# Entry
Amino acid sequence: MAEELLDIAELIRQIRGGQPAAAEQLFHSYEPEIRAEIRYRLRSAAVRRVVDSQDICQSVMISFFLRVGAGQYEIAQSQDLLRLLLKIARHKTNDVYRAQLADKRDVRRVRPLHEVDEQGEKPRQDQRAANAAELTDLLEELERQLSTHEFEIASLRRQGFQWDEIGEQLGESPEALRKRFHRAIERIGRTLTPWF
# Structure
């Protein structure tokens, strides 16, 4: 597997440091397995007509990169990262189903103009570069929307400080800081990307 060759801890450090090449490398290494999981779970032809596995995969990676950029995840092993990404993919796919099959939007009532063979689609190289640039923009926007206090916490997390060390520096409970910061990431993430 390609991810076996990656130094996950180093890639995450680079992503937190704002290096888009690291985000792109991680994205390309895990994209096939994430999309396979999403395609497996997108069993409804009606939902597949309106939602592409690429859309959900990008949402998975955007959520992951936003949280990594904010210092939320501590991952060093490729199998742990894959498990996390697949779990996010399952949740996002379930969210898509709920949204698309809701009474007001039930896609089962929509008649397709044409069918698309999702299995044969391949992301173009220029699309991959655009995805990496989009992720960088999202991380920058996340930082812009953080309060001064939240930004200070994010900066300390990116520098590798643990929650107890941050709590000591800021004179607050580590658990309270962690919870408040994660709520802020959730709040901002929902404004930046669908299915966050």
Remarks:
- Residues 78-100 form the longest helix (23 residues).
- DSSP finds nine helices and no strands in the chain.
- The chain has one domain: 2-192.
- Confidence is low (pLDDT under 50) at residues 106-123.
